[in-house]
Amino acid sequence: MRRMRLDRLLTRAGVTRREAAALVRRGCVLCNGRPVSDPACLLDLDEDRVTLNGQSVRTDAHFYVMLHKPAGVVTATEDGRFGTVMDCLPKALRGWDLLPVGRLDRDTTGLLFLTDDGQLGHRLISPRWEQEKVYVALVTGRVTERDAARMDEGIPLSDFTCRPARLTVLEAGDSQSLCEVTVTEGKYHQVKRMFGALGHEVLTLHRRRVAGIDLDPALEPGQWRELTREEISHLYAVTEMEAPDHG
Ligand code: URA
After folding, report:
1. Ligand 1 pocket test: which of 205, 206, 208 has the largest number of ligand atoms within 8 Å of its C-beta?
2. Which residues contact 122 (CB under 8 A, 6 or more apart)?
3. Which residues are catalytic?
């Protein structure tokens, strides 16, 4: 049985615990159609249905976000200097304790998942499950088949040797080339360092796919949506987790 305190559940509707208690006192909160008097009462999330001012409050186990990360924000929950990916989400989602799954550099754009589902998040970034991440990189200089072969062999960096990566040259020019690169690990600045080892500086980097899920083309930088049930089930399948029960 999944249990949760009523006031904790109500934070998922974007209110603080103190506000939740006041709303309960005012009779704005119903559980299974009846007013509740104790904000600390324990709910059975599989059975109980809660409404706040007539709107149902979600009792799902977890929340899953697909964000089109814009350039300029850091992948963190707080930062003293820069905006964070959390600033792209509405305040009403704060009650879910979402965390970014992995990390994109401040200047990197593209697909970032955020969730409070710690086990799934862990498996998506753990090298053990070898989830593919696909990046599109604009780099300096002409990228050649020789570069692709070296990525395929695994590039040795100062502190580790990268796993083989797949490089496809989309457009090659003398001064700049556009490439797609697929990696199965996510070490610090990895894609930039891999290109750096081949003598190419990364000018822009965009992540378009993670674990078989594409960034939704309808999302502009800074926009987000919830993952669909099919996408969540897919992520559970590829990380060898039991399918979530959507109730
Ligand atoms: N590799 C990088 O170098 N930067 C990113 O943001 C992601 C992968």
Report:
1. 205
2. none
3. 105
Computed on alpha carbons and rounded to an integer, the radius of gyration of the chain in Å comes to 22
Cβ–Cβ under 8 Å, residues 75 and 85: yes
Going by pLDDT thresholds of 50, 70 and 90, the confidence category of residue 1 is confident
CA of 119 to the centre of ligand 1 (A): 23
pLDDT digits (tens, 9 = 90+) for 94-126: 889 999 999 999 999 999 999 999 999 999 999
Q: Is 162 inside a domain boundary?
A: yes
* Distance (Å, whole) CA 73 – CA 144: 32
pLDDT at 190 over 70: yes
What pLDDT is recorded for position 75?
98
> Tell me, what CATH number does 203's domain have?
3.30.70.1560
| CA–CA distance, 112 with 58 (Å, rounded to integer) | 23
Return the ligand 1 atom nearest residue 183 CA: 8
Residue nearest to atom 2 of ligand 1 (CA): 189
Pocket test for ligand 1, best of 190, 200, 207 (most atoms within 8 A of CB): 190
Provide the domain limits for residue 96: 64-127+212-238
Of 56, 72, 99, the position where a domain reaches its end is 56
More confident: 46 or 73: 73
The answer to whether residue 243 sits within a structural domain is no
Same domain, 101 and 222: yes
Distance between Cα 94 and ligand 1 center (Å): 26
Ligand 1 centroid – CA 191 distance (Å): 5
Is 55 in contact with 13 (CB distance < 8 Å)? yes
